[in-house]
Amino acid sequence: MGRSGRVTLSDVAKASGVSRATVSFVLNDDPRQTISAATRERVTETAHELGYVPHGIARALREGSSRIVVLTVDRGIEGNFSRSYVRGLDEELAAHDHVLLVRHGQAEPGATQRILDAVVPRAMLTLGEVYMRGHEPAEPDEQDWESGFAANAALQIGFLAERGHTRIAMALPDHEFPLTGARLGFAREAARRLGIARPESFVVPRPREAGAAAVEAFLAAHPEVTALAAFDDDIALRCLTALRDLGRRVPEDVAVIGFDDTEYGSLSTPALTTVHIDAEILGRIAAREALGIDTEGLAPERGRIVDRASV
């Protein structure tokens, strides 16, 4: 092996009994070279036995980019959706000999360019962008209402409406997420389709006292509201805590439903009813699109309600 302890082309060449150039031609599948099938097989097997891994930077120079795909995950989006999305993306990229690099949180200006300069990625993605592309509440795509983002956003409203709640409010985070506006828009469109009142919205901030004050003020101004559909489980748990602090019973006085099925929701009292979404297939679609591979046969799966005790 080389001085770094890493198997090199020279190591493969020596073990195969051929020149270093021949090994390079074989492993890079250079179509301009005429090399016998027997030699190709011997070199390939030897490289595999020795555990040779191509040098990423050299390959990036040859191919114009590395075999790295960068995914940006906004701060705070850390639920079942993001975990399953990353799992599908990572596994699909690995199946096509690529590596996933995940960035968490909003980075300072210039950070993206430094990543581009450092690793020359094959593609840069944002969590969920394939989920949202082309789907806007103002012009709903009927396919999206069957199994896409619109369908999942509508699950909360439909579940509450089935249980007699016709005055529903959306509880939102105190900082903007890329999907906040779209979620609220789809919820309101779902209510319109069901023939119930247009959901109001309000922010539930941190810390605990501020959240309780926000819930108290909203319910005082909207006493007709009997259910809160939260942006995610984190906001739903803030609502549960606020309602308990205010002496309101859940679900007898006010029902609460979360979104994204985190473990904490199952541990609360009452246990949180929520929406579970398996986004692995979305990650696989994103991976194939990034690599220019056909996505035929891959389609999003609709989420499902996890029915517990808060509705």
Q: What topology does this entry show?
A:
Blueprint: H1 9-16, H2 20-27, H3 37-50, H4 56-63, E1 68-73, H5 80-95, E2 99-104, H6 111-119, E3 123-126, H7 129-132, H8 142-147, H9 149-162, E4 168-172, H10 180-194, E5 200-203, H11 208-221, E6 227-230, H12 233-245, E7 255-257, H13 263-267, E8 274-276, H14 280-291, E9 304-306
Parallel strand pairs: 1-2, 1-3, 4-5, 4-6, 6-7
Antiparallel strand pairs: 8-9
State the gist of this model.
The protein is α/β, with parallel strands linked by helices and 311 residues long. Helix content is 47%, strand content 12%.
Question: Main sheet?
Answer: 4 strands, parallel
Give the overall shape, derived from the CA principal axes: elongated
Indicate the proportion of strand residues: 5-15%
Oligomeric organization of the protein chains: single chain
Encode the helix/strand succession as letters: HHHHEHEHEHHHEHEHEHEHEHE
Helix content: 40-55%
Q: Radius of gyration from the CA trace?
A: 26 Å
**Estimated structural class:** alpha/beta
Neighbour order of strands in the largest sheet: 5-4-6-7
Distance between the termini: 63 Å
Enumerate how many helices there are, as a single number. 14
Number of strands: 9
Mean pLDDT: 86
Q: Extract low-pLDDT stretches.
A: none
